[in-house]
Each structure stands twice: as C-alpha cells, then as structure tokens.
Design brief:
Structural class: alpha+beta
Strand content: 25-35%
Largest sheet: 6 strands, antiparallel, barrel
Number of domains: 2
CATH architecture of the largest domain: Beta Barrel
CATH superfamily of the largest domain: Rod shape-determining protein MreC, domain 1
Order of helices and strands: HHHEEEEEEEEEEEE
Strand order of the largest sheet: 1-2-5-4-3-12
CATH topology of the largest domain: Thrombin, subunit H
C-alpha cells in the first residue's frame, strides 16, 4: 500500500485524470477552438517565408530564363545566317545557270573555235574596264584575240600568261576595232567611251545609219573575225557640220557582270 502514497503514483494518477478530462472535452467539442488555433498558428510564418523567398526565386528564375533566351537567340541567328548563305548560293547558281544557257546556245550555232574562260577578277594592272581570265597560252589564247559573250564582242586579249590572260573590255576608252553596219556594209570604227558605252565613229556623212540597225565586226583585223555582233545603232551624236557621222551603240551585254566568256582561237 505504500506505492499509493509515492510520488510516481501521484504523477501517474494525475496523468490519468488529465487524459480523462481531455477525452471528455474532446467528446463535448471543447477542444476544437484550441486545435484550430494550433493549426492556424504557423500560417503567418509560412506566409512571411513565402513573401521573402518568392522574389529570390523569381530573380534566379529570370536569370535562368534570360540565359536560355540568349542561347536560343544565338542559335536562331546562326540558322538565319545559314539560310541567307544558302539563298545567296542558290541565287548565284540560278544566275550562273542562266548565263551558261545563253552562252551554250550561241556555241551550238557558231563555227568559230572557242576557248571557254571564267572571269577571275577585274581591273588588272590598274586598267579600267579590264578582266583577268583563267585561260592562257596553254589553252591557245593569244594577244589580240577577240573575246565574246552570248555571241557579242566584249573585248580583246591584251596580255597572255601560261594559265591566265587579261582582256580589255570594249567599253574601255583604250579600245578600238574596225566594224561595219550590217544592213549596208558601211565601214566605221568602234570605240569605247570611258566605260559608259560604245561609239560607232568615222561614218561617212553621206552613209545611212538608222537607229536599230546592227553593227558587226568588219574582219579587217584577222584576229577578230568578221560578222561578230557588237550591238545596235542608237542615237546620233554628231552634227551635220562634223567631218564624220558618229552614233552610239546599244549592246544587251552587262559588261560589269561577266562571269563566263569565250576567246576566239
């Protein structure tokens, strides 16, 4: 019986009484406000923590997104550049193919011996209206030979190397060759006009030179065969008081964009 009066028994009994009271209060529903208060107590702390951490989270998320967007932008720029380069190559190939079609169309109908050449560069030896070709003496190219494109005279060879040559364009002020009007065989001289065009000079004042008539080579110079097209007669440049008649020549050739030519052997 001494156990009943011990301190341990007193604590145990007190716990049983407290437990019985709590069970009674739970049954009666008196503990609901206390439980609600306990559950709601952490919410302000959680909200404060969320308030503090959300901007930090957004900051690092924004940095990550910016880095990702920058990487995607670089990739897109690279793709755009690749597509642009492909488009340029495709356009150039189309132009080259069109030029080759015109050249081959002329080659099929001519009896002249021709050496095909590719234009490498412009303005050789500081000459205006001069081009460097990828063919030379090993290909049968000689100085003074005629150079044609699409059946039209575009210049003559003024320098030859082993595997390259230089052509002086017909538009150069240093260029001249004999010519004639195809419709009436009137002889004249074709001269370049400082890169701005062609002039048919030294036509007799009594000779007929109508606009639209064809001008061709006369063949006096053996290295430039006769009857190579040069262009059509344009406007009259001289007056009635001049010793000779002078007219402009219109050619369909774009001398500034020659990629392929033929040298007459």
């Amino acid at each position: 019986m001494r156990f009943i009066y011990t301190k341990t028994f007193a604590i145990f009994a007190a716990c049983l009484v407290a437990l019985a009271i709590l069970v009674f209060m739970q049954v009666k529903g008196w503990l609901d406000p206390i439980r609600t208060a306990v559950l709601q107590a952490p919410r302000p702390i959680a909200r404060f923590a969320q308030f503090v951490s959300l901007p930090v989270k957004n900051f690092f998320s924004t940095i990550y997104q910016l880095k990702k967007i920058a990487g995607e932008n670089v990739a897109l720029q690279s793709q755009v550049m690749s597509l642009q380069q492909a488009l340029v190559q495709e356009n150039q190939q189309a132009l080259d193919n069109e030029a080759l079609k015109k050249e081959l169309g002329f080659v099929k109908t001519t009896q002249m011996q021709l050496q095909p050449c590719t234009v490498l560069s412009e303005n050789s030896f500081s000459l205006n209206d001069a081009l460097v070709l990828n063919c030379g003496t090993e290909d049968g190219v000689q100085e003074g030979s005629a150079v044609i494109s699409q059946g039209y005279l575009v210049g003559k060879i003024i320098y030859t190397g082993k595997d390259s040559s230089t052509v002086l364009l017909i538009t150069s002020s240093q260029f001249s060759t004999d010519a004639k009007i195809s419709q009436n065989s009137v002889n004249a001289i074709v001269r370049g006009s400082f890169g701005s065009g062609l002039i048919l000079d030294q036509i007799s004042q009594t000779a007929d030179a109508q606009k639209g008539w064809l001008v061709v080579t006369a063949g006096i110079n053996q290295q430039i065969p006769k009857n190579i097209l040069i262009g059509q007669i344009g406007d009259t440049l001289s007056s009635g008081g001049d010793l000779f008649k002078r007219v402009s020549i219109v050619s369909p050739i774009d001398y500034n964009n020659l990629d392929f030519v033929f040298v007459v052997k």
